[in-house]
User: Fold DNA-binding protein from Lentzea guizhouensis.
Amino acid sequence: MPRPLSAPLDVGFDYTRSTGPTLGRFLSDLRRRKVTGIRGADGRVHVPPLEYDPVTAQRLTEFVDVASTGVVRGWSWIPEPLEGQPLDRPFAWALIQLDGADTSLLHAVDAGSPDRISTGARVRVRWRGDRVGAITDIECFELSDGPGDEPVEADDVTMVTTPVHLHYTHTASPTEDPFLRGLMEGRLLAQRCPACEKVYFPPRPACPTDGVPTTDAVELSDRGTITTFCVVNVPFLGQRIPPPYVSAYVLLDGADIPFLHLLLGVAPEDVRMGMRVEAVWKPREEWGPTMQNIDHFKPSGEPDAPFDSYSQHL
Assistant:
């Protein structure tokens, strides 16, 4: 029996958002080498600042400057840092109560060894030289009972972009493996539920209706019917083609569940429900264990399918 297919995957995107008055003030001040908290309804100063009081849920507006020095309230040693962590050498994650604050901030302490850090140790911020208005403007904390650095002038921060990346190795399940191997041969393999006889494409290991394994393999054609569609007019990162274009749900002949794919070869204003389409495959030498072997769908030229033929598959 061949080993299941597996491959490294890298999922990533840039998350961009506006900051609002509370987070914007906090990030702007970090850029200025300042740390800002906010006073809660019970008089406590929270760092990082909260938008709403954790007890009364009232909106909080009284910003309070706190020091960039403080005390370690608890810590955990990290002997082997992971990708994306603040330091690439052993360090301590620590809860740090800054002078003037009543809550603790989680950040890294560059202590050198676990023997040098302890609860109650005095620390101060080590600022990053190139600050952009992010929590990473604090490169880390360092052990010191000296004063913090003086603030500097900097522009306000109103928008932030946070890159998100996830690296992992995916191993195909017993259902995925023959599906992916079929794609490498230009075959579209689905699974049928033995109870309700619905045919799922892409295949599912179990029928969501009956809760039983889908044990019967079914090979489908690469022709189908458009059940629904949308015209994409908004550009975004990683887009294959410039908008406008059509993303459509295609119900392959013999399947009971449509799947989303790209529709080309027709003007967006001419696309309609019931349009018959066929797959346009990439050159065979480019095939791999992926649905991207089908570059897109295009109109097949057949008459539109009657609504009753796909009305139960929307």
Q: What stands out?
A: The helical segments are 20-31, 176-184.
